[in-house]
Amino acid sequence: MTERFEPTSLEWVERCVKTQKFTANDQGEVCAICTHEFEEGEDASTLKCKHQFHPHCVKEWFKKKAICPVCRASARY
Ligand SMILES: [Zn+2]
Ligand SMILES: [Zn+2]
């Protein structure tokens, strides 16, 4: 375990997070950072682990930690 959870740059976030329009799936996704549900057609950022967050929420979060707030998987590629 040599993973480091250091502050990240916005440039890094852009590379590791895919942002696209949210489309409802059978899980009824909620942004775990602000705990608000996604609205159909809203922008959603998807991490490597498939968890989805609001783009502005995830950018704030990644200033502190480069891990998924839900499953704690490393968000780095
Ligand atoms: Zn959010
Ligand atoms: Zn996750």
Automatic annotation (TrEMBL):
Keywords: Metal-binding, Zinc, Zinc-finger
GO biological process: ubiquitin-dependent protein catabolic process
Annotated Gene3D superfamilies: Zinc/RING finger domain, C3HC4 (zinc finger)
Keyword Glycoprotein attributed: no
Protein's name in the database: RING-type domain-containing protein
Residue ranges constituting the RING-type domain according to the UniProt record: 31-72
Pfam families registered for this protein in UniProt: zf-RING_2 (PF13639)
Gene Ontology MF term list: ubiquitin protein ligase activity; zinc ion binding
Top-level division of the source organism's lineage: Eukaryota
Cellular component, GO annotation: nucleus
